Amino acid sequence: xxxxxxxxxxxxxxxxxxxxxxxxxxxxxxxxxxxxxxxxxxxxxxxxxxxxxxxxxxxxxxxxxxxxxxxxxxxxxxxxxxxxxxxxxxxxxxxxxxxxxxxxxxxxxxxxxxxxxxxxxxxxxxxxxxxxxxxxxxxxxxxxxxxxxxxxxxxxxxxxxxxxxxxxxxxxxxxxxxxxxxxxxxxxxxxxxxxxxxxxxxxxxxxxxxxxxxxxxxxxxxxxxxxxxxxxxxxxxxxxxxxxxxxxxxxxxxxxxxxxxxxxxxxxxxxxxxxxxxxxxxxxxxxxxxxxxxxxxxxxx
Length: 301
Ligand SMILES: C[S@@+](CC[C@H](N)C(=O)[O-])C[C@H]1O[C@@H](n2cnc3c(N)ncnc32)[C@H](O)[C@@H]1O
Description:
Layout: H1 8-22, H2 27-39, H3 43-48, H4 56-70, H5 75-79, E1 81-84, E2 87-90, H6 101-119, E3 125-130, H7 136-144, E4 148-154, H8 157-169, H9 172-175, E5 180-185, E6 198-203, H10 218-221, H11 237-249, E7 250-259, H12 265-272, E8 280-285, E9 291-297
Parallel strand pairs: 3-4, 3-6, 4-5, 6-7
Antiparallel strand pairs: 1-2, 7-9, 8-9
The protein binds S-adenosylmethionine (SAM).
Residues 96, 98, 102, 130-134, 136-137, 153-156, 159, 187-188, 204-206, 227-228 line the site of S-adenosylmethionine (SAM).
C-alpha cells in the first residue's frame, strides 16, 4: 500500500465509510476513538498529524478494531476504557460499561450526602453499594466528597479485579480526602457484617426483565454481561430484595438511592406499597426527562 493510503486521514476516511453501514450513529467518532487508542494519542493529535503514515502493525491493529466495531462490539470494550463523571475507568468484557444515566444517580447521591454531612459535621458517612461493577459510583462520590466510608459489593471475582484496579488508579481520591472504599465479593448483602448501621445505600442494580434482554441493541444484548443486566422475570428482583432487606441495614433516618429503568416508576411505586417500613419516596428525572433515580426514606421526608 502506498503512503497516501496509509495516512491518518485516509485510514479515518475508509474506516468511517466502513462503519457507516453497520454503525450509522457515529462512524467518524468511533473511527477516531479507535485510531487514537491504537496510536496512544488524543483525537486532537489525529488532526494535527493527519498526513502521518501508520506502520504495518498499527494499520492491521486498527483495521481489526474497526472490524470488531462493525460487529457491534462497543468502543469501550475495544479500548478498555470509559469516561464516567470526571474519571477515566478501566472496563472489561466482564463489566457493564458505565452509562451517562448513572451520573444522574451520582448527582443525587452527592447532593443528599452533602446535606447529611451539613447535619453531621465531621462525621464519617457510612454507605453500602450493591453491584459496583467498575466501581464507577463510589469513585465518583469520592471525587466530590470527603469523610466517606463506602463498602461496595459485587458477586463476581473478575469484575472486582477491574474495580480494584480502578480504585488503585484513583487512589488519590481516598487518602487525600479521608475516604475509605472497600470492595467485597458477596451475593447481595447477605451475611455482610457492616461496621454499624448505614447512612445510605446506593445502587444501580440489574433491572432489565430477563426476556427483554434479547430485544436490546446488539451492542448491549450480545456484548454486555447479562449478570449486570438481568433483573429477573419482571426486572424488579433487586428492588424487591432491597425494599425487604435494607430497612434492617439502614439507620432510622437512612436513605436509599437507586437507579431505575426509564419505564419502571409505576411498577416500583406499587411495589413499595408492599413494604410499609418505607415512609416516603420520590423520583428524579434523567436528562431525557425519564424517572431515573428513586430515593426512598425510612422516615417521612
Ligand atoms: C447494572 S450493573 C452496575 C455496575 C456499576 N455500578 C455501574 O453503575 O456502572 C449491576 C452490577 O450488579 C452486579 N450483581 C449482579 N447480581 C449480583 C448479586 N447477586 N450480588 C451482588 N452483585 C450483583 C453485577 O455483577 C454488576 O456489576
